[in-house]
Amino acid sequence: MKSGAPISALRGLARVVVAVAVLGLPGCGWRPVYGGAHGAATGPASAGLAETSVALIPERSGQLLRQALQSRFDRGTGGIGQRYELAVNGLAISGEPLAIQRDNTTSRVRLVGVAPWTLVSLGPQRRTLTSGQARVIDGYNVINQQYFASDLESEAVQRRMVDALAEQITLRIATYFRQHQSGG
Question: CB pairs under 8 A, 24+ apart, for 17-26?
């Protein structure tokens, strides 16, 4: 008796179930956010993102957020004119101690990042199209007697948070462009 036969049969059944589920998604109205109609590679969300410039954001974390947003907006469609501008005003990453030791030192820090943003159409009227706020929470352990390790961990967490904020903002703006296919 082969012991791998039941596992192999289960894997085959799982593949069939996944294939049926994926093939059934378009029938229920599901469409990829960035894709176009009828299987086109790009759609209104990708085109709208490519036409969006990101305004300068102050501080180091703002620079990282701007770079993350620019890399998500530029999907290999260089040369398209800019019709929209994204402004992130008041990016803030604040920390609070969570685990306080008996000697009053902190062993864990929670960071909260908030990024309010506004998408405006470029042109004479500069009309606000949509706005929102991205928020992310993360944390890191403070390693006692290891200042540089804690500092490096803090920087890594802030980069992770900036990436998550950029992903939230990009998805919200892509959804806006998908819902308003005619543009601004």
Answer: none
The single-letter DSSP state of residue 41 is S
Q: With 0-12 CB in 10 A as exposed, 13-18 as middle and 19+ as buried, what is 53? A: middle
DSSP 67-114: HHHHHHH-SS-TTPPP-EEEEE---EEEEEEEEE-TTS-EEEEEEEEE
Using alpha carbons only, how large is the chain's radius of gyration in Å? Answer: 22
Whether this model's pTM surpasses 0.85: no
What are the CA-CA distances from residue 79 to residues 68, 161, 166 (Å)?
19, 30, 23
pLDDT tens-digit series, residues 20-46: 665 655 555 555 555 555 454 467 788
Query: What tens digit of pLDDT does each residue of 104-125 get?
Result: 777 788 999 999 999 999 988 8
